[in-house]
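Researcher: Please predict.
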Amino acid sequence: MANGKYRIPRDGQNDHSREQAQTRRQFLKEHTGAELSHTGQYSIDPACLPGNIENFIGIVQMPVGVAGPVDIDGEDAKGRFYVPLATTEGTLVASYSRGMRVINECGGVKTTVVEQFMQRAPAFIFDDARQAREFGSWLDDNFDAIKQAAESTTSIGRLTHFEQWSVSRVRYVRFNYTTGDAAGQNMVGKATLAACQWISDNYPGDCEFLLSGNMDTDKKHSHLNMLHSRGKRVIAEVTLKQDVMRKLMKVDTRVMARSSVLANMGAMLAGAAYNGPHSANGIASLFIATGQDEANVVESHAGLLSHELLPNGDLYLSVTLPSLIVATFGGGTGLPTQRECLELLGCYGKGKANKLAEIVAATVLAGDISLACAVITGHWVSSHDKYGRNR
């Protein structure tokens, strides 16, 4: 079935062209009946797509709205930002804008990136558990040489430390890197392969390895990442003033604090990866708009919403995202529309990844404030019914 008339057309010399995309759309029409007329209308040059897509047929166009502005007092994101959100969910952009207005009225949001790593985690297999234990000690003794081998493959990746676990006769080792302004999954894979080859050549005993033993948790949620960051650990903080909350949201801060306790218990009971209202909404919308790897939402959305009712009635609120994976260089960030959205935030190119991470965290906090208040006041259902139904 894969041969002859069922094989998707390809051009070995120039497969990323308008003509070749048209050829594939015509092929699909003949085999499925689908017209793909809108998919075939786009403004970007397919010549910029090698490395981003195979069997290109066109562009899926998604609405992009802008939320904000939001005032951010970060170490890298400083000032007022208009945030592009790509979504098909009505009320979403309006809700984030509402939360951002509250943040601004309360003096803005403070954002901090506290640490950042990217991992690859090979498994090393031995004859018994004692050999695996001894191998772990040998790794620590030879860290500098392993680091040199790993970093020979990259100009910006830096191996910082190992984490190790023994299970049966296997030693699982998590290689932790910093990766500059790239998300870095491919970078650390290549670096770790070079490191493993050096280890195999230099370890005094037999050393069999599998490049990933699945403890790197690539594109999977893991509680391990809540404790030891994968991507960037970023925190956004705001103090919600009691009078502002009553005026703008018609919500008493004491009621919001009580509701947060109930939500925390519910999230704990469910075993949820995030205890706030909806971190994935803002993250996914920003990821799509700015050319991030959308599968990383599953890791990036995990986190902790913390609150404290202050003696004067104000409410301290913070979002901690321990595994936010973002990039401002490489991958999909250089595609034309994605680059424009990054430029809207002042986040395109090298030296901007922490800035983008701070903006994402501030956006998540704004969305959580808005949705929490909508749930408390009973506007959650009515707003979706009024604005979120595509009739």
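Model: The chain has three domains: 16-61, 64-115+231-387, 122-210.
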